[in-house]
Amino acid sequence: MALIRIKVIIVKLHYKVKRNVNYCKNINKYRAKLGISQDKLSKFAHITLHTITKIESGSTPDPRIETVKKIVNALGVSVDELLKK
Q1: How far apart are CA 40 and CA 61, in angstroms?
Q2: For residue 59, what is the DSSP state?
């Protein structure tokens, strides 16, 4: 039962990210607040610089939810904050 709830939450979260392209700007905003480069963020999040660059530029409108979770953890924000308009 718990596994089903987790899957539902992940699907809902994925749908939110997919429909909201403001997260691209918000990643940049929160990164600037921390005073870190895209390269630093990629290292903190354990993802490639190429991935960060593509997400921030909007070239990747549908990032994997695992990638989004790594980014929010590295930025120290919640998914909700990242998805705010």
Answers
A1: 22
A2: S
